[in-house]
Amino acid sequence: MSPFLLIILFILVIIFYSQLNRKIQKLEDKISELQGNNALQKNNEVQETKEKQASPQPSFSSAELQPERKPISEPTVNIPEEIIPEQKDRMSPVLNFLKQNMLAITGIFTLVLGIGYFVKYAIDKNWIDETARAGIGFAVGAVIMGTGHLLKKNYTAFSSIITGGGIAVLYFTTTIAFREYHLFTQNAAFIITCFITLLSILLSYYYKSEVLIIFSLVGGFTAPLMISTGESNYLFLFTYLSVLNMGMLIIALLKNWKSIGWIAFFSTQIYLFYWTLEKTQIISVYFYIISYLIFYAFALQHYIRKNSLASFDILMLVLINFSSIIGLVYIFNTLNYGPVIIFPVVFAIINTALLFREYSRKNFGIHYSVFAGITISLITVAIALQFKAHLITSVWAVEATLLLFIWKKTKLDIFRICFYILFPLVIIAQMITWTQYYSIKNLKIIFNPIFLTSIITVVTTFANLVLLKNLNNSEKRYAIFENLFTVLSYGVIYMALLLEIIYHISEKPFIMILSIGLLFTIYYAFILLIFRKKLNISLFFETGLVYLFLFLLIINASLAGTGIVNSILLKKTPQNFFGIYLLYILPFVYLFRKVLPGSDFIKIKLSYWAVSITLTVLVSCELYHLYILGNADHIMQANQLEKHFSILYLPIIWAVLASIFIYTGLKKDLPEFSKSGFILIGMMILKLYTYDVWQMDNVSRIIAFIILGIILLLSSFLFQRLKNMIKNMVDKKEENTENQSTES
């Protein structure tokens, strides 16, 4: 009999807690009354002070006060004020409720578990039969709900929790009686659960309790799962859910309870998407449309009544539009119905009507921006779907941009956070779309579903970059996300274009694919550097791009260039392709002459070494390529000519480049260039005397030493001459300074 003693003890604890809570409530009432008296006294004192201060001031005429009335007519000023407080205070009532009623919530949960364990214990001991078990469950639920009703007058929140626990007991009792004991048929069980849901909704409306309506909705949406037999009777299920959502909408309109709308929205979407994926049927389209209308009305209730849109209302508008499009278009594509663009177009027309409403009122504030953004986004999705773009990727990409656009207009962080959550999903979806390049053959150039989806992603990503430009200090609280987003965005744009190019040249030799890929990468980095200011690229990112650009030039000249020369000699690549390969020289020359002199890259000492190494590699490799192509007819000759070039011509090239580096460094006072020149000379001499001399014949050795000797002497002469010129300039400047000081 210990379970009975435990239940009695628990009831005594609840009664003791109720008495204690009543005393605390009386003390709180006395404290609030005293605080109200003090506040009233202070307000009277402040009012008297204001009246004293205002009495000597002169009065103004109505003409002087008239200009102050003008700002009142501007409708866009008050809209942000209606939105921002709702976002800040949205969670505080919930948190306060949980803090104040945590003990009660834990208690009712424990009580329900205790009753369940008691029933199980009684069943194990064979005290009661199956019918009696169900009867006890219903009776206990009714007693708990009655207890909550008795406590309603003095303990509103506590009674709501108690009543919700009673409702939970009724739900679970019905489920067990149907699934375990088979006391009811499925129709009878469904009618009972509907009755419990209706009763709980009426009680929540009567009690004016949002907590109780949440209990009711959770029970209402889980009821189909409780009485399910595994048969897919979706028509019956969604008829029930539509009626439940209509009841939710009515309660939300009467009581202005936002939480129940979100619970109903997510629960309905889960059911709809599961039905769509598990058993795609055309009849589900009707329930998507019904759900769209219900939740669209829910999101617009404040807009219709008070001409205001809270942050979560705007978020609901975005989610219901795009989630409905995903489900509806998926059904049409699976069942081969058309045209699929009918849904985004119809939704765009609905939002256009609201946009026109704002336009007719000359209200170009947040509401106008929101409806305009949704309308344009839906039209963009319609165009993408018309060209057979990938559904999920296109919708998510447009939706992410829309969220970012709304954030820029409202400055509400909820949309920015949603954007940062959704954008990685866009990238993942786009990567999955790119994998189709490996499985689909004979795609058209540009006008194929994969690349059209990539274009949508590229356009929306570029729009995101534009929206995130020129953020002020208050908007840079997520700097790490902005930097990571920027890198990912440029990476997505790069990969989208590169993969399309590679797909259409995939039948070419590997070295041609590699060369074209490197050439595209070089030009892509070059374009980013050209438009770095317009794209608002940071100095750190700009410097990294320059280093990457120089590294790509070295890889292209040394690896791709040599491979192309060998492929031409093997007759696998046409000789005119070498001219396409040399196109990388144009961006390098432009960057070297126009971009680098005005960038922060040259302020770093390491940059001069990077430029020197790049010039040395490019000049050496390209002269080698031209030498091989001009003298070799087949690949066997190339090996011998390569050795001859390395021994005879390469030291001369390095000597000339070293002289240029030294001269440039001395003339423009760039010591790093001079150092790189001297090191290059040292490398050339070391190579000459340790390896090249022993590989040359007598004639080549004589020619090499004479030419190198002349070059080194000329370099030394130029160095000495430049040194004397600099010395004379310094001496002349000092002499002029002394003369000026003597005259003064």
Automatic annotation (TrEMBL):
Protein's name according to its UniProt entry: Putative membrane protein (DUF2339)
Pfam families: DUF2339
Sequence ranges of Polar residues compositional bias: 54-64
Record has Cell division as a keyword: no
Alphabetical keyword list: Coiled coil
Keyword Transcription regulation: no
Top-level lineage group: Bacteria
InterPro entries: DUF2339_TM (IPR019286)
Segments of this protein annotated with the region Disordered: 44-71
Coiled-coil ranges from the UniProt annotation: 17-44
UniProt source species: Chryseobacterium populi
